[in-house]
């Protein structure tokens, strides 16, 4: 749906990556590997987004890092549009606020990496009513037209395995 408004697939991937997770910082070569696009296409889009003030950059060592500019007047609007298009806004409203004693929720998988995906992968930390949660997920999948996969960890188990479970691309959606 976003590709009808924005013709550059590379720009869409960069917006998803940087605006769904505003704390993400990344550099050109890593983006090339992660997004699967060529360096020149990524560089052109990064420069356009930076010139528009949507991204800010800084140099660390010999690498130029980029990050979303959360002070840009359109930041929250763009982030909101991306949340709606990916279905994350409805997921948050319909499901995560009503399932039990959640401590944290992470988005993982393709969507967390900034790639469009028909699947929303979640890691939930806390105690939930799994039967009720599965019911809510089934209803939400019909509404947002995406498949939702999830795994649940209790707080103790998550704390013990967090380093193995969470990757640098995972995005925290919610924290108690």
How would you characterize the overall build of this protein?
The protein is α+β, with helices and mostly antiparallel strands. The protein folds into 2 domains: 67 residues, Orthogonal Bundle (Arc Repressor Mutant, subunit A); 89 residues, Beta Polymerase, domain 2. 47% of the residues lie in helices and 26% in strands. The protein has 8 helices and 7 strands. A hairpin with a 2-residue loop joins β2 and β3. α2 packs across α5. The chain is globular, with a radius of gyration of 17 Å. The model has no long low-confidence stretch (mean pLDDT 85).
Radius of gyration: 17 Å
- In which range does the helix fraction lie? 40-55%
Largest sheet: 4 strands, mixed
Q: DSSP strand (E) fraction? A: 25-35%
CATH fold-level assignment of the largest domain: Beta Polymerase, domain 2
Any descriptors?
Arc Repressor Mutant, subunit A, globular, Beta Polymerase, domain 2, 8 helices, alpha+beta
Write a brief structural summary.
The chain is α+β, with helices and mostly antiparallel strands and 176 residues long.
Compile the SSE list and pairings.
Layout: H1 2-5, H2 9-20, E1 26-27, H3 28-35, H4 39-51, E2 55-60, E3 63-68, H5 75-86, H6 88-94, E4 100-108, E5 119-128, H7 130-144, E6 147-153, H8 155-165, E7 171-175
Parallel strand pairs: 5-6
Antiparallel strand pairs: 1-3, 2-3, 4-5, 4-7
């Amino acid at each position: 749906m976003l590709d009808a408004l924005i013709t550059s697939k590379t720009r869409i991937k960069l917006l998803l990556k940087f605006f769904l997770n505003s704390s993400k910082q990344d550099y050109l070569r890593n983006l090339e590997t992660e997004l699967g696009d060529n360096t020149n296409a990524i560089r052109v889009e990064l420069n356009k987004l930076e010139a528009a003030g949507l991204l800010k950059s800084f140099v660390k060592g010999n690498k130029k890092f980029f990050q979303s500019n959360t002070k840009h007047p359109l930041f929250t609007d763009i982030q909101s549009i991306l949340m709606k298009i990916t279905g994350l806004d409805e997921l948050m409203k319909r499901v995560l606020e009503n399932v039990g004693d959640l401590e944290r929720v992470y988005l993982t998988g393709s969507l967390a990496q900034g790639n469009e995906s028909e699947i929303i992968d979640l890691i939930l930390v806390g105690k939930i009513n799994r039967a009720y949660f599965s019911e809510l997920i089934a209803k939400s999948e019909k509404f947002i037209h995406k498949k939702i996969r999830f795994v649940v960890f209790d707080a103790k188990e998550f704390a013990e395995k967090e380093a193995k479970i969470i990757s640098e691309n995972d995005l925290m959606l919610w924290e108690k």
